[in-house]
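no rush on this but wanted to send it before i forget. what follows is a protein written twice so to speak, once as letters and once as structure tokens for the fold. mainly i need to know what kind of three dimensional shape the backbone takes. thanks a lot i owe you, the record is right below.
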Amino acid sequence: MKEIDYLAPSSLGEAYAALQTGKTSAFLAGGTDIIVQLREGRKQVDQLIDVKHIPELVSYKWTDDGGLEIGAAVPFAEIYGDAEIVHRLPCLIDCATLVGGIQIQSRACFGGNIGNSGPAADTIPALIALGATLTVGSADGLRDIRLEEFFTGPGQNVLGSGELIVKVNIPPQPANSGSFFHRFIPRNEMDIAVVNVGARLDLDSNGERIEGARISVGAVAPTPLYVAAAGDALVGEAPTDEAFARAADIAADAATPITDMRGSIAQRVHLTRVLTNRALNEALARSRED
């Protein structure tokens, strides 16, 4: 492991300036992925930029319209320790409590999980189901990106030179909606999803028809998938087992997995169908909670 400069900027301006020095950079948030990548020689950088000292990145707030803005470096432990988030956005808790152990969750964050851009990342399908966007920043200003449009390949994304993730924006959720994140792992000692699924259902005021739905699947393609067709197939339908099965079939058809040490192509396609169905049923149950 070569010598690497460590920087701890205390403002976004300082971080942007560090990114303009011409040195190759990586961000240190939780460190779970980047430290391993550097140690194993899978990534080479001149400097590590610790983003945990930038106020905008380590704070979160509810917006006036009921949305939630989460700084990219807010630890998961702060998220699941907030009773209001637990009550209003339980789907976030589903995924935030799964990324590593308690010690890791005290530092790991949404920005790190998203920025690493792994196809099996556990926060991404949940956030896509919630309709999340990202605000990314550079010395030239800020821009917003829909989360499902952020990823371009395994470990790759649309961040340009000099840019970093500033915050995750979760829009206000519709009335009578519910969301759920589900994953399958081969065993507790291998904490990487074989398949994971996020789903949201928006019901009408009577709870008898589906007015909207979002379904996202991970670990079954080079990037996390937003399966718009699966959600669209549910619009106007009653929330029945038959409707959910049709949507799950569409999600499974969208999967293009590989066989690796965690699972085969056939297993992953099957799990996509099963987990999508389960996530929809759990989202339905949450939509009907008081």
User: Anything to note?
Assistant: Residues 265-287 form the longest helix (23 residues). The longest strand covers residues 195-203.
